[in-house]
Amino acid sequence: MIDITEIKLSNAQIAWRAAQDIEDGAYVNLGIGFPEMVAQFQPHGKQAIFHTENGVLDFGKSPDKGHEDWDLINAGKKAITLNPGTSFFHHADSFAMVRGGHLDVAILGAYQVAQTGDLANWSTGKGGIPAVGGAMDLVQSAKRIAVITDHVTKTGAPKLVDTCTMPLTGVGCVTRIYSSLAVIDIEVAGFVLREKIAAISLDDLQSLTGAPLHLDGPLQELACPKELA
Amino acid sequence: MIDITEIKLSNAQIAWRAAQDIEDGAYVNLGIGFPEMVAQFQPHGKQAIFHTENGVLDFGKSPDKGHEDWDLINAGKKAITLNPGTSFFHHADSFAMVRGGHLDVAILGAYQVAQTGDLANWSTGKGGIPAVGGAMDLVQSAKRIAVITDHVTKTGAPKLVDTCTMPLTGVGCVTRIYSSLAVIDIEVAGFVLREKIAAISLDDLQSLTGAPLHLDGPLQELACPKELA
Amino acid sequence: MDKTIQTAAEAVAQIPDGATVMIGGFGGSGAPIELIHALIDQGARHLTVVNNNAGNGHVGLAALIEQGRVDKLICSFPRSADPGVFVAAYRAGKIKLEIVPQGTLAERIRAAGAGIPAFYTPTGFGTDVAEGKPVAVFEGRSYVQERWLKADYALIKAELGDPHGNLTYRMAARNFNPVMASAATTTIAQVSRLVPLGGIDPEHVVTPGIFVSALTEIPNPAQEEDLNRAEAIYP
Amino acid sequence: MDKTIQTAAEAVAQIPDGATVMIGGFGGSGAPIELIHALIDQGARHLTVVNNNAGNGHVGLAALIEQGRVDKLICSFPRSADPGVFVAAYRAGKIKLEIVPQGTLAERIRAAGAGIPAFYTPTGFGTDVAEGKPVAVFEGRSYVQERWLKADYALIKAELGDPHGNLTYRMAARNFNPVMASAATTTIAQVSRLVPLGGIDPEHVVTPGIFVSALTEIPNPAQEEDLNRAEAIYP
């Protein structure tokens, strides 16, 4: 198997790439953990508005250490700050926003994504204690569901698969994957490759992917700022 | 048929009688029109808290003429005032209070009440334009549903009936009727007479009632302040 | 991002013939009179309107009906001090009426905004309004299934608004406005005062901006009750 | 009418063994630590607890679990920085776990408060959490039927409270507290500041007093995060 350690994108680069597609004025929910990083890379002149499940819309960046207020946190329980324009609301209202289709984009992590758009990201199914949080609500309801993820697991197994073997978070919900090697849309045909990093061949990329990669129109180079590597 | 014009209670007296049963601290909704009058007769030392469907809890009495604020109205579109303790909320939250069973008492008017507790008070069924408002929600959900009404229609027909002939507002919902002649509970047996005005005989009262009046325990005199007559 | 629009006319310009339009308010309180009048001027026809009532006098919703723009009205209580316009249109067969219990109306609108296609309510069980609807028993009690109610547009009235569309309301004028804001594809708010971003305390926002597409400042908005006492007629 | 109670101990005194208790908060924000600790002192056992999480460290909900008082936990996310107490109890078979997606949890609680016994949601369709639940198709899309979730008691944390039980919250500490307040037979609030009647602007009330049975003032309430950073253990 090809060793991608040296060529694959860093998490920061993946997050940067995902951030480029967020339109000005979009309402965005970022999953807890790695996806939170996307907020750092909003392109100049495009201002996204971030929603967090625990009842805050239009919040600001992390406070300096020592300036946290633990009543002002995001869904990952990390401290956030106020923006001019912030609003607070209770949990049922917060998920009314989610379920009602008012979010433009949700960006989540993944254990597995199937070529049908099925997502598994809440339970490994191996006897660990399951924890679903707001993921199942988000994936059914935001107008666009994107995943950011390493292209393969730590042991080199594909995370982009024919059929998910882990418990599903949602059925047919993901429409775009930003991986450490490529940008892939999910359409009727399955995985449609839009961009790949220059350092990997199409054949090698296919060998690391658990279902066929289709081409439809021009294939772009996936280029990210080197300083984020 | 007996003429009750001279002996029957006034609307104010009926409203007064209904007000005596409202417990201190009770949350109460008064239907639009005649039932609104109940608020004027809260017994000394008992403070009810009034809810109106259009999103106000714990409001005060009517303002003086010329001091109305038309953003501060009740469900009957009459001007009200603020109390210390008033709160505002939107319509879905207001009916969450109603439907969720948080009101202790709702007092409504009636076209007909059946001995089963069925209530008809929204449509005469005669080709008039129907208007239901919040009545159907109230009658299904408040902990106690009481009706205040004349005992008979303007033409002398019973309003307390065996079976409602007009379109129903709710099924089996009314538990007490304060009429212009009597106080009647609705129980498994049907109409159970609790109080009647001294000036009418039991036989005459029965003749003005469309279903059997049962006795269960002592029959009290229905006595109301004469100055309200 | 700035959602503010200069005039009511511009705010309602895109509403097409045949649109379903929710109009906030309970009677006159919270009724967006200026937006409704702008919609009359704009000329859209064959509208389905969702409102608690059916208009009063000859202004606001009553005027929209009087101008023959409303094919169907979904409401809970088509009575008012002066319901003549609606009554005449209804009796002439010019307007269809769907009566919905007030709490069910509010919850159907809230459900649309919250992505809930159907829910069960005890309201209306055993009555005419339950006719043709599925019934189910939960824990021994019977309930009626009701469906969400969505709209293409919502016209609402708020008190303060900021450029992101965060809104507050004034007293009982809140009523249907916040739930309607959440249930329409496009929500247009008239605000009595436009404040800068940050001008509304985050704890006091009632409608977060995510539910608002556009807002326009109408200082000193007309109150339906005052117009009717002055026997106003629009246009 | 005055719903204020002098001490947390008195406020929770009536909670019986076997009760279902909703506890507000999302992680530590909005968690009524003093009420939970009073419940630990009070001694009630075999509780079913509804909370978004499963405790963190050895205080609050984690301490209640560590003391063996909780037979079953209904939550969306039983992970935290230090979930050891829950994990140990779960692995030892001492506590049952029902996992509910967070939005479904919030809506089931809201439905209980709003008198809606069941509703349909797209959330969880086609996943393990939909197993055994009715499914229905509306307008071509599949939805799962979810049921209301009621409780005997709710323990919540608020910022301001008045003698009628009107409440406000502090920033993201609002979270589950208002919906839980509406869904329990008896709702007990700890408030950081008790104000006289009229001390809360009617426009700013988040939980109207109708949902609150009793409230007690706990000035300067403990923050779970601070306790855990200080490695506190209760009792």
TrEMBL record, chains A, B:
Ion transport in keyword set: no
Example of a GO MF term: CoA-transferase activity
Domain of life: Bacteria
InterPro entries according to UniProt: 3-oxoacid_CoA-transf_B, CoA_trans_fam_I, NagB/RpiA_transferase-like
SUPFAM superfamilies membership: NagB/RpiA/CoA transferase-like
Pfam family, one: CoA_trans
Keyword S-adenosyl-L-methionine included in the entry's annotation: no
Key words, A-Z: Transferase
The family this protein is said to belong to: Belongs to the 3-oxoacid CoA-transferase subunit B family.
The protein's name in its UniProt record: 3-oxoacid CoA-transferase
From TrEMBL, chains C, D:
An example Gene Ontology molecular-function term: CoA-transferase activity
SMART domains: CoA_trans
Family assignment from sequence similarity: Belongs to the 3-oxoacid CoA-transferase subunit A family.
Protein name per the record: 3-oxoadipate CoA-transferase
Lineage top rank: taxon: Bacteria
Keyword Transferase: yes
UniProt-listed InterPro entries: 3-oxoacid_CoA-transf_A, CoA_trans_fam_I, CoA_transf_BS, NagB/RpiA_transferase-like
UniProt cross-references to NCBIfam families, sorted A to Z: pcaI_scoA_fam
The keyword Plastid is annotated on this UniProt entry: no
UniProt xrefs under PROSITE patterns: COA_TRANSF_1
Organism: Pararhodobacter oceanensis
Short name of one Pfam family: CoA_trans
Transmembrane segments: none
Keyword tags: Transferase
